[in-house]
Structures are given as structure tokens and as C-alpha cells.
Amino acid sequence: MYRYDEFDATFVAERVKQFRGQVERRLAGELGEDEFRPLRLQNGLYLQLHAYMLRIAVPYGVLSSKQLRKLAFIARRYDKGFGHFTTRQNIQFNWPELVDVPDILDHLASVEMHAIQTSGNCIRNVTADHFAGVAPDEIEDPRVWAEIIRQWSTLHPEFAFLPRKFKIAVTGASHDRAAVKFHDIGLKMVKNEAGEIGFEVIVGGGMGRTPAIGPTIRGFLPKQHLLSYLEAVLRVYNLLGRRDNLYKARIKILVAATGTQEFARLVEEEWARIKDGALTLPAEEVARIERYFQPPAYEKLPAISTELETAKRGDATFARWLKANTHAHKVDGYSIVTISLKPEGGAPGDASADQMDLIADLADEYSFKELRVTHHQNLVLPNVRKQDLYALWQRLAAVRLANPNVGFLTDIIACPGLDYCNLANARSIPIAQRLSRRFNDFQRLEEIGELRLNISGCINACGHHHAGNIGILGVDKQGEEFYQITLGGSSKDDSSIGKIIGPAFAIDQVADAVENIVNVYLEKRTGQDERFLETFRRVGIDPFKEKVYGNSQARRPAAE
Amino acid sequence: MTVQVVTANRLRDGVIVWLTADLGWSEEFTESRPLRDEAEAKAALEAAGVAVKARLVVGPYLAEVDETPEGLKPNSARERIRASRLPTITPDQGSWTGRIEG
């Protein structure tokens, strides 16, 4: 894992000290809310519906057991005993008191964490493939490049006041697990014809009010030019992006209005000016950062573990979890384990302090002290010996953390929604709870197969509803909550934006509507290997629409 | 005119509060001061403005409510959740376990 250098440690310590002073001045009346608000937001502190909310950066989703234990401590000491992992691989605390936040930031700094650039119109926490460094389909480890981007973008003075927030995602694998086409900049590591590794640069994707799948503006960017090219993209955006209209300020609007080709030309023009300058990455500096991400001391193990095979045969519940929640590892004898934070009836992405402590212990015992946060709001133990999987599963099962639903319908992405969020129109978590209860039959989930269901409580789309195979969007109708359903979204290699099925539903109708949609899929699919998305693309939206709206008065849509 | 109340968040801890009959602040929605006309609403917002300057609260605003024989009731999903002072997810359903003093 990357460790803070002297520069990181100094600026984080300085920022905590500054923020402590700012809170004191706010409480003393020397700063008004208008002056204080941008300062607290720059330190990740929002004022939400019930309380303040602190959003803490987990750089590219990589977390050590020591850091997770510190988060558990903060949850207990300063919050209500839990934290919420987000779709941006961050963690949020929902109940801190303003007066405690400087102390919380001090605790975070002691484990090389902070909340800087988790809010505001700046380059936000860089996200990456949650299987980075361990996935068998990887061309190169993207954490090295995510770390380089983190260092470049942290406190970058030119990009501290962009027209709007800016999100960068990196993947080094052939299969996109980082939703790169839905980011302001998506970077995908690719090999060119000469066999060299570089980046495909995708710009102008995003969710929100105007969802967009980002177009590629450069098919191959040599690695040493990464930062100069990013700087060129950001500079064009910073100069030409709209500041007159909040809803038209993201780079996706600029790219669409300018045209991909012309936007790419503008970037290339700027890049030609700065290329081969100070931002060219020296090979020795890249090598220095690569050393932080060297593989842990893997043992030489056989590809097949006899202990695992025996346990699998003897315990069907374990076998089910093994199939859904473990993934192939690049090293023989090891597995990647996803810990589902989606228990039946639970709030997606929430983990209690006790669970965090236990997971930290498990990371120590079984995964070289390392964890990942996924944008699906789960946690990952990236390096588990196959022979240890049965023991690990038993430990997880004892504390309700062995739900075998990863990749299935109940592995729901949900934003905090109106239960917590000041911007939300409707609640998200209760919809997730209802669906997780309705579909809490693992045989049925397996029969349905891979299906991504995402819920957002408002059009800002923190719950990625546009990219859900089934997406649910909370809308406000005269102060009451309704839910619009979209079908056919995907954030993978076959990225697409979901289509609205029709009029919105009342909260009590959502689970029935989803059940009907699933039943149409099961009826129409050519076989179990045709995924929901493929069936939807083949048969179109009409059969779903007919079933959902056409069958009875009871299922009649509740609102236009 | 519909009945309104003034609500805000407390500066120090962010807790939701309502302006009361004596122009103080309460964590109980039921203790809200009902504002039945524009003059009352204006005066209440002015009082809230004083509390903002005194660093007691932030972001005060008027929220419409229903006046029923049982008292004032919030009349939107958002204000119902705020008035309950908690998410609608109960502890046995969500992860939160109540604040552990330590």
C-alpha cells in the first residue's frame, strides 16, 4: 500500500490545524455560515437532513486493517456506531457533531486518512477497479497510476475551483469493474500494436440529471504523458466549462456541446503545448511508487486446495457463498473475497463498528492486512488462501456478513436517500430493504442470475440508477415519495443508460413492479445463460411495460 | 394561508430544531410555533435570523404543516422524517446500534 510521504503528512496536519481554527472562529462568530460553508465542504463536512455528515476519502478504495479499525473507533466514539460505504469507494459518517470534527480529522491523520477533496468543485477522490493488483484479467496494476493522479490532483491550485466537481476512474483490467465510461475522465489501460501499455482516455461520461456514456478522445496515451494529458483535459474544461448554470457545468455537457472531435482537438492543442515538460513522469519516480504496490509475500500453493474442495462438498451453504462471493485470483491457491454489506433487510453499504473491527481482524489474519471498498458498497479481502476460505466464511457467517448475494438482485446499490440526505426526494434504503426481503431466496436469486439493481433518491444519481439493469429513481410528487423505474442500464464494458419504463410507482408498489419485471425476464430469456441485460436488449421494453402496467387495477401506476 | 413553522439545524451538532412559541428552539416538532399568516411568518423568520447571528442555528426556513385536532403534523415525506428526528430505518433493520459512550 502507498504510505504518506513527508509532503502528504505535512499538508494533512496543516489542514486539520486550519480547520480546527475555522471551527473555533465559526463558533465564536468570527465566521458566518456563508464564509464557513465552503471551508467545511473542502474538508468533507456536509450539513445533511438530521446532522452533519463527514465524507472520508478512501483513495482508490484501498484500505488497511489499521485504517478500518480507526474508522470503527470513530464510528463508536463520535457517531452512532456505524459508517456507510459509498459508491465512490469512500465512507461517510452520518452523525458527527461540528465541535468533534477537528478531533476526528486528527484521528484520521494518524492513520494517513483525510476528508480533503471529498466535496466541492475540485478533482475528487480517484476511484479504481476494486480488484486492482489481484485480478487475473489485469494488464497492469492501476493503483500505481491512481496514486500518481492522487498526488498530482491533491491541492492542485489551478483546479481547486472548477466549474463543477470532477471524478476520475482508472482500470487496468480487460473487464471494466470501475465504470470508467460513467466518469468525467475514465482511464483504461490498454496495449497498442507494438505491445506497449498505455491509457485509453474516455472523457465526458457521467450520471446525474444528464447521464452520458463518455466517448474516447484518445485511443492510446503513453504512460509517461498521463499527467500532462490530464492537465490538458482539465485546463480546457476549466476555461470552457459553463459556470452560469449548475446543471450544465459538468464536463459531459461541454463535450456534448463542443463535439467529441473538436473537444479532443482542443485537448491535443493544449497538450502539444505542455507535453514533454515538467509533468512528464520520470521512470524512476514511477518505479518508486510501483514499489509501494509490490505483491505481498504469497506462498507457493497448488491451484486447487483439497481442504477447500472437501469443505465445499460437505457444506452446501458454504458452497453457495463460495460461488457468489469469491473471485479468481491471479496467484494460484488464492481467492478474492467480497464481503457483502447487503444483509436481508439491511441498509446497503452500512457496517457497524463491531463489524468493521471484525473485518479488520480478518484482513490481518487472512489477507495481508489489506481491504478494498467497492463502488457496489461492499468490502473485499483481496488475498485469501483458498485453504482458509471455509474458516473465514464461518467467521463472517457468525456476524451476518456472509450473505451469498454478490452480483445478484439483492446486491443493491443505494444512496442514503431521504433518510439522511438533504438533496433527496425520496428514501432509497427502505426500497432496498423491501426488495432484499422479497427476493431473499438464494435458489431463486441464482436462477435469476446476474442482475444489477441500483437505487437513487434523487436525480443526482449517487445510487447509479442510470447504470442499473433495473434502476429505481426517487421522485417528489407534491411532497410525497414516488419511484420511477428504468431498465437496461449497465456500467460494464457494454455500458448503457437505462430507459424509463413508464409512470412512477408509490413505495408499496415498487417490489411488485420489480417482481413483474423479473418474471418477464424469466419467461422471455432463451436460457439461463442469457443475462437480464441481454434479454432486455433482445426483446425491448414493451413486454416489461405490458406486464408491469397492464395486468390489474392494483398495479396501476400511481402517478404520472 | 396554510399554517407554517420555522425549522433549522443547530450549529454545534447539526440537530434539527423548531422555533417555539417563546421564540426559543426545541428538538420536538410538536413544540413548534404555528404561524398562521404572513406577518407571523415574517416575524418568526426575523427571530430565526437573530438566532443565526447568535450562532445557535443554521439554515432556518418555513415549512408547511397541517393543523389537526391532535396538533400540528408535518405534511411532506421530508418533514415527517425530520420531525421524527431519525431515519425511518429502525435499529434492528439497519446497522446502527445506538451511540456507544466511550
UniProtKB/TrEMBL annotation, chain A:
Molecular function terms, GO-annotated: sulfite reductase (ferredoxin) activity
A Pfam entry, by short name: NIR_SIR_ferr
Keyword tags: 4Fe-4S, Heme, Iron, Iron-sulfur, Metal-binding, Oxidoreductase
E.C. numbers: 1.8.7.1
Broad enzyme group: oxidoreductase
Residues of the Nitrite/sulphite reductase 4Fe-4S domain: 119-273, 411-548
Sequence ranges assigned to domain Nitrite/Sulfite reductase ferredoxin-like in this UniProt record: 52-110, 334-399
InterPro entries, sorted: NIR_SIR_4Fe-4S, NiRdtase/SiRdtase_haem-b_fer, Nit/Sulf_reduc_fer-like_dom_sf, NO2/SO3_Rdtase_4Fe4S_dom, NO2/SO3_Rdtase_4Fe4S_sf
Domain of life per record: Bacteria
PANTHER family: BLR3264 PROTEIN, FERREDOXIN--NITRITE REDUCTASE, CHLOROPLASTIC
The protein's name in its UniProt record: Nitrite/sulfite reductase
Organism (species): Dongia sedimenti
TrEMBL record, chain B:
Entry superkingdom: Bacteria
Xref: InterPro entries: DUF2849
This protein's name: DUF2849 domain-containing protein
Lineage: Bacteria, Pseudomonadati, Pseudomonadota, Alphaproteobacteria, Rhodospirillales
